[in-house]
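User: quick one, fold this
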Amino acid sequence: MNYAVFWGCKIPFYLPQYELSVRAILNVLGVKITNMEFNCCGYPIRHDSFEASVFSGARNIALALNNNVNILTPCKCCFGNLMHVNHWLRENKSLREKVNTLLKEEGLEWDSGTEIRHLLSVLFHDVGLEAVQAKIRHPYNGLKVAVHYGCHALRPGNIVQFDNPFAPTIFESLVAVTGAEPVDWPGRLECCGNPLWEKNRQLSLKLMKTKIDDALQSGAAVMCVACTYCQIQFDSVRMEALKDDPVCSTLPSVLYSQLLGLAFGIDEKQLGLKQNKTGQNFNFIQSVS
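Assistant:
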């Protein structure tokens, strides 16, 4: 298996531990990744210029196609937008022709043959649960985990095609192979609040605190995410905006690649655990046998 890895704009600067941990677990699983000079996925400008957003995403897809590889991205926002780009270019002939005219200036062309895969999809569908479980060296002993899906990978279901948008199970299954116990909590599919952070910070924080309280009441000891924006919200934003709130000392937020990496026996430094803001005592690690 070989993929062109799409880190997006946020991970290298705001969340380098995501890149570190993803590289580490993919190496253990024998998944090869090709590093390419991608541009932005196009999401930040889609409400200012739909065509510019589509062109930005299409250029990335065309670059991968030119190198005969599919795209793997750990960022659910990038995943969602690239899936939207593929959808609109398949459905809109005039838009497709306009975008390809621009791409031809670089000797590129968009085609629907390139697959866009989120990290969790690659692990679940391509690598497979049995292969992942076979690499577990230090299973968790019933550690209760609140799995947080994030919005962009689930909706709209007919476009992203990640999992059942109303009753997804992929993430829970991937957590379960580590020996951890995914808890059933009502707010697992709700927004983390990060998209509102620059518009309405009070509401953004209220949404986040509601989710944290919900997960805690369901018995979770740790929050597990696989979305760049959700981890920034539950980790960095929480510690900066709510540093005096008791909520900061509860329910640490970790990336799935970090959770899995520990179970693989990968060193904490290789997973960037010390770069997380919440859970600096890493009590949940004690649940690894």
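User: anything notable?
Assistant: The beta strands are 2-5, 32-35, 70-73, 116-118, 144-148, 181-182, 222-225, 253-255.
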